[in-house]
Design brief:
A 5-stranded mixed β-sheet has the order 3-2-1-5-4. With 288 residues, it is an alpha+beta fold. It is built from 11 helices and 5 strands. A hairpin with a 2-residue loop joins strand 1 and strand 2. The N and C termini lie far apart (86 Å). It has 2 domains: 138 residues, no CATH class; 141 residues, no CATH class.
Length: 288
């Protein structure tokens, strides 16, 4: 009986360690980042009332020693378990904090980070920004962009980097002038002026350019909007990147952030419905 009890006790301990790490307890990477990963649940508890997207946390892939270490959340136990490792064939740069699908993991989405990213004071604000992208992927990312002509053309040409490299006319004088004013007017809440400027932007851009702008305002703008809500809770400075010329892709992070704030003031809770907020952002404005 005593031997049986000892055996069961050892078995329980082994199972407990397995539950915590998802791999042998001596795994140094799992131990090294256990506290940083556990803090995700602490932050989530503070921010989950902001938006329904934060009711869930997502996998985190830590890249270290040229290896991906993929951790999945065990929400009930408030821990991340190491579930998979794989060689880093992407050559992920130090300081990376981004969300993308992993081909070696059945194209599942994860927030990919390196250890350096955890050394920054605003790491968790950026991490939850990336979790928004994970939620977008789960919700409707592919469903929505399949209807975009720019996406269809990119896939035909096997251009898988189109979201980062689309040749948008950021320096076009009309765009700089109109979008610059729009960023200011959105803060003022002048609905008729916002509608007019969105209409002028539409006229000044090709159909493809409008598609791209609206897509980035939804995808990155929503993530930035919620990131800044998280920053407010955590006592961190607002992220205003992209607000001033010269404009580039990050301009749509800030433009989308401000436009969604504007829409939230008029339609509280609209940012909880990802498809609806996209349809609102991408709709062709009135020309009156």
């Amino acid at each position: 009986m005593k031997k049986t009890l000892i055996f069961l006790t050892v078995a329980f301990l082994v199972q407990t360690v397995s539950d915590l790490w998802g791999s042998p307890a001596e795994d140094l990477v799992a131990q090294k980042y256990s506290a940083a990963l556990a803090k995700i649940f602490d932050v989530q508890a503070r921010i989950k009332g902001i938006n329904r997207v934060f009711e869930k946390v997502y996998p985190v892939a830590i890249v270290e020693n040229k290896t991906f270490y993929i951790f999945e959340p065990a929400a009930q136990k408030r821990v991340y378990r190491l579930v998979r490792t794989s060689p880093d064939n992407f050559n992920v740069a130090a300081g990376t904090l981004a969300a993308f699908t992993l081909s070696f993991w059945d194209n599942r989405m994860a927030c990919v980070v390196t250890g350096k990213a955890f050394q920054e004071s605003d790491t968790y604000a950026f991490l939850f920004h990336e979790f928004v992208h994970c939620a977008q992927w789960d919700c409707c990312d592919l469903k929505l962009k399949q209807h975009l002509s720019i996406f269809q053309a990119a896939m035909k040409n096997k251009d898988y980097m189109w979201e980062l490299q689309y040749p948008f006319p950021y320096a076009k004088p009309d765009f700089v002038k109109i979008h610059g004013e729009l960023l200011s007017v959105l803060d003022q809440g002048n609905a008729s002026r916002v509608e007019f400027l969105r209409s002028e932007l539409k006229k000044s851009l090709s159909d493809e350019d409008w598609e791209y702008m609206a897509w980035e305002e939804w995808k990155e703008g929503l993530a930035r909007y919620l990131e800044n809500r998280v920053r407010a809770v955590l006592g961190l400075p607002e992220n205003r990147g992209g607000e001033s010329p010269p404009f580039d892709r990050v301009t749509f992070y800030r433009g989308g952030d401000k436009f969604i704030r504007f829409l939230e003031r008029r339609h509280p809770g609209i940012s909880n419905d990802m498809e609806k907020i996209y349809q609102t952002i991408s709709s062709v404005p009135s020309s009156k």
